[in-house]
Design a protein that fits this description.
Elements lengths: L21 E2 L2 E2 L5 E5 L3 E7 L13 E7 L1 H11 L3 E9 L3 H10 L2 E8 L6 E7 L2 E7 L13 H6 L2 E4 L2 H5 L2 H12 L5 E4 L4 H7 L1 H6 L6 E2 L3 H8 L4 H8 L5 E5 L5 E4 L6 E3 L12 H15 L4 H15 L10
Parallel strand pairs: 3-6, 3-10, 4-8, 6-7, 10-11, 11-12, 12-13
Antiparallel strand pairs: 1-2, 4-5, 8-9, 13-14, 14-15
Helix pairs in contact: 1-10, 6-8, 8-9, 10-11
Length: 324
């Protein structure tokens, strides 16, 4: 999700980070517990003026940041004051470093390590024309339902499955296994396809078939079209809502389109923001939406508006995670 430019103030951390933010007399997400399953990666984020190959840009801004859709969503949930656990995989030498970073953001990390694989990585290069990203899931690419402790699922109110690295490796069987593990308790299940490339690699019909039991789906417009073969987001929602009862399509500057069976799609506009980096904005949106939806699953429009507010904050930082 991307937002138009408008100056905004840097966010401050909520005063009561474990109790939830008070909004209109209620505390969204209070008393609810979230479990996020997916990728925790290392990122090399490059901002450059170079537009072609074979150019040396000594003024490029290069930053190393922890990234990954699951880590991003979990840390925004933690920043918002939610009770959140995260399950993922990293290389053996990076367990403590990532656990500490997640803990600083209010996340209880349950990271498995793989002695045969390094921590996954993303290289993101931005210039005036757009972004090019390259990813290597490595250890995150072998996350499976067996990695998710049943006791964590049993305590969760919402289980969120996300990350192109996690959903890509292993194809449809990995997705179905993760959904089945998430459904083993009483939690509602959310899933973010995370990448149009993943949808195409797995196969649209196979991907849709693995979504039985998912309660809310968070595709981008491109992912929704890839999943359905439709020519518009509205037509895609008509197909997706025959499989998943709530579909939340993020459409960059065009905002969010909410789909439910038997209803016309509802559009929610973006929250204007100063765009510093679009990486992780969709993950932040999911965090804001899920936290509000956990408290009130009926008022999905209000949950989407909360999601756009959190996404607008995320757009003001490099790397997709909140400052801690």
């Amino acid at each position: 999700m991307s937002m138009p430019s408008q100056r905004s103030e840097a966010p401050s951390r909520p005063e009561a980070p474990r109790a939830g933010r008070a909004v209109a007399g209620r505390r969204r997400g209070a008393g609810k517990r979230f479990l996020v399953v997916g990728d925790v990666l290392d990122g090399v984020l490059v901002q450059t003026t170079a537009a072609t190959a074979n150019v040396h840009d000594p003024a490029a801004v290069i930053r190393h940041r922890p990234v990954g859709a699951a880590g991003n969503t979990a840390t925004w949930l933690g920043w918002l004051g939610a009770e959140v656990d995260l399950v993922g995989r990293v290389g053996v030498e990076d367990v403590y470093r990532h656990e500490r970073g997640l803990a600083d953001a209010g996340v209880r990390a349950h990271l498995r390590y793989d002695a045969r694989a390094a921590t996954g990585a993303v290289v993101s290069v931005r210039n005036g024309d757009g972004r090019t990203a390259m990813s290597d899931p490595a250890a995150s690419g072998v996350v499976s339902g067996d990695d998710v402790p049943l006791d964590l699922v049993g305590r969760a109110d919402i289980v969120h499955l996300t990350g192109s690295a996690m959903l890509g490796g292993g194809g449809v069987d990995r997705i179905a296994g993760l959904v089945a593990r998430a459904r083993s308790g009483t939690a509602r299940v959310a899933l973010d396809p995370s990448s149009e490339a993943v949808v195409r690699a797995v196969g649209a019909s196979e991907f849709l078939g693995a979504l039985e039991g998912v309660d809310v789906l968070f595709p981008s417009e491109q992912e929704a079209l890839a999943l359905t073969g439709a020519s518009s987001a509205t037509d895609a929602i008509a197909v997706l809502t025959t499989v998943v009862p709530l579909v939340v399509v993020t459409m960059a500057h065009d905002g969010v389109l909410l789909g439910r069976p038997g209803r016309s799609p509802q559009r929610v506009p973006i929250t204007p923001a100063t765009v510093v980096d679009t990486l992780g904005a969709g993950d932040a949106f999911a965090a804001g939406f899920l936290r509000a939806w956990a408290t009130d699953p009926v008022r999905v429009g209000a949950a989407a508006r909360e999601g756009t507010r959190v996404a607008a904050r995320a757009l003001g930082f490099v790397g997709g995670r909140p400052p801690v």
